[in-house]
Amino acid sequence: MDNVEILKKWVAESSRIVAFTGAGVSTESGIPDFRSVDGLYNQKFEYPPESIISHSFYLQRPAYFFRFYREKMLPLDFEPNITHKVLAKWEAQGKLSAVVTQNIDGLHQKAGSKKVYELHGSVLRNYCTRCRKFYPAEFIRDSVGVPKCTCGGTVKPDVVLYEEGLDQDTVEKSVMAIRSADMMIVAGTSLTVYPAAGLINYYRGSRLVLINRDETPYDSRADLVLHESLGDVFSQL
Ligand code: CNA
Prior knowledge:
With 237 residues, the chain is of the alpha/beta class. The protein contains nine helices and nine strands. The strands form two sheets. The chain has a six-stranded parallel beta sheet with strand order 3-2-1-7-8-9, with helices on both faces. A three-stranded antiparallel beta sheet has the order 5-4-6. The two termini are 15 Å apart. It binds carba-nicotinamide-adenine-dinucleotide.
């Protein structure tokens, strides 16, 4: 049996699949990831992208932060691809209990997934840091310079920047879903960003599947590894 056949069999036999996804799930929708050859980290900027999207940079140079954010991190007008859609279908069929994602693009929900734990937040939610008023992503896109609320406060995307902590409630729900999963599919992530990557350690089953074009530090721990394009794999499922 080849790897995709094994994967198909395991999916058919499972009823509490958890998908743990990263930026690689959305590259086939047209959104660049961070670490692929054509990803954001391999493009030339005045500062390393890791610095620009850190909390201290956001505080020190907000105008620069928002220019970069609008140009490179605000992926509006993109559509879910086959991977997002298959995961949503499995949830509707009662086979998948949750998607735990590092993505901030909202594409899992756009594909129809309901239970999505967004470890790193979402570009679709934005709040005034002073009065907590909500703003949609279009407000950030259409603003100039540092986006300001009517009260004068800065409107900040609900996205977890480097140096910022994860939302505890989201982490706890993710851990609960992963702990009770009978299969875990890790897809499109380099598994280098912590603490998110460490959540894999909560999986206790024997069907840990890694689907990623490049190798990851967890390859040797997985029960099945596919170094393939997600679109190629998921279009067969
Ligand atoms: P990453 O470190 O850029 O890794 C992505 C991985 O996906 C790489 O190892 C690639 O080999 C793999 N990959 C890319 N395209 C495909 C494909 N079509 N098929 C199979 N494998 C593929 O991204 P991570 O998610 O691991 O890093 C975590 C960061 C990236 C999170 O904080 C995210 O918020 C952030 N990010 C999110 C988005 C988004 O929301 N779409 C985009 C860019 C970065």
